[in-house]
Design goal:
Helix 1 packs across helix 5 and helix 6 packs antiparallel against helix 7. By secondary structure, the chain is α+β, with helices and mostly antiparallel strands. It has a 4-stranded antiparallel beta sheet. It has 7 helices and 4 strands; from the N terminus they run ααββββααααα. The chain binds zinc ion (ZN). Zinc ion binds next to loops.
């Protein structure tokens, strides 16, 4: 059995296996269950959606354009937005994983994994003009939505 659980493993497993919208719901907040723009739940965002949800094999991430930063499902625990103990939640997920999967996850969590979306380079290019103040938030979000409609290769 796992004695001292590596916090990095707890974080990795929670980020990979728990969809953002489920933790947000526990916190009484809303996040979409698909990749799209939305209100950021980490700052006072009620007028224009300032964030975008990304999802791939590594789990969910939320990029906030207003704060210029990436959030992960684990941040909901870290910022104490819910009372649940991340270690308990981790254990619940861990017991359900087949042994072969556990080994893989252990390797992945200890490796230097990029937590960025797989098409991050392309996204970054589109965000740059917004950062320089050459585009409005609406314009950059429209650009990013175009990016999504491209067929996945
Ligand atoms: Zn934000």
């Amino acid at each position: 059995m796992l004695e001292d659980i590596d916090p990095k493993l707890i974080r990795y497993v929670i980020n990979k296996y728990i969809p953002f919208h489920r933790l947000a719901k526990i916190a009484g907040l809303y996040l979409p269950n698909t990749e799209r723009s939305c209100f950021c739940i980490f700052h006072d965002n009620t007028e224009t959606p300032a964030a975008k949800l990304f999802r791939d094999a590594e789990g969910d991430r939320l990029w906030c354009f207003a704060e210029n930063r990436m959030y992960f499902p684990y941040d909901i625990f870290r910022l104490k937005m819910i009372q649940h103990n991340p270690e308990t939640v981790f254990k619940k997920i861990w017991v359900q994983l087949p042994e072969s999967k556990k080994e893989l996850v252990l390797q992945e969590s200890s490796a230097t994994v990029s937590f960025l979306p797989s098409n991050w380079e392309e996204i970054k290019k589109r965000i740059e003009p917004y950062k320089r103040g050459e585009m409005t938030l609406d314009e950059v979000l429209t650009e990013l939505l175009k990016l999504e409609r491209k067929p996945v290769v």
